[in-house]
Amino acid sequence: MKRTTPAQKRPRAQILTERALASLERFLHIEAVSGAVLLVAAAVALIWANSPLSESYHHLWHMSLSVGVSELVFDRPLHFWINDALMTVFFLVVGMEIRREIHEGALSDLRQASLPIAAAIGGVVVPALVYLALNGSGPQAQGWAIPTATDIAFAVGVLALLGKSIPGNVRVFLLTLAIIDDVIAVLIIAFFYSGGLEYGGFAVAALGIVMVFALQGMGVGSAYVYVLPGAIIWSGLLMTGAHPTLAGVVLGLMTPVTSVRLRENPLDALSRIATELLGLEQNGKTDHMSGPLKELRRAQRNSFRPSCACRRPCIPGWPTG
Q: Where does the record place it (predicted)?
């Protein structure tokens, strides 16, 4: 009698759904997709903002969104949640990749790292001087910092769109230049265009940084545990008047680049857990498998570096090394 496998017992709808989701996942992992989506979204936004419907465009960006419980409510417009909150996650990913390159990549050599740093400084100073040369007098002179910023999101989008046609060293150079340029521009805004920095916020951010180092010293490898100190750093920088997305850069550069030391060799742990799972299945105790499976996932997660634990580039089109 032919034995029916578990896969053959699955409903056809489930099989078709899994195939569709797998195809969608493969599509989203295509390097050029993210860059194309970014460029299309930018084109749509430009057309919308300059069309007769421009009022609805600006109304959307200033739409209020609130987060809180009871009387503790944090209310901000939509553009704040995108520019100051979601972009923090973006800067976190970029900071992690820069940290990895500093450890063992193209930025590990000071001579190589000095080139994008010098280029970023030149990319800030030269446009500002050109602007002042053309607008040196009058109120317009106050806008000297406008041409100093680089749109790092578009820089990454173009890199993703071009894919593997760009050498890895060029990718590292361009991304490092973009993020340093962006950080300098944020600092310019904080020091020259804000009403002054609130230094009490730095104490709050420092508390979050101390918490991160303490958790790392205890060997905590779960990313979810670092959400709280990350939020404290973000809140502290927001209190200072500086751009809170710098919290993402700080956390990214603090991310460990070596795997957590395990008490057991990963291969030994895999063999032991596999034997345990097989024994549970043979004894009909499949409902007791959740513990060994969680341990297996934990060992797998701790075996890789936080910046590349998925074994795929954290940024579309980024070389894994």
A: Cell inner membrane
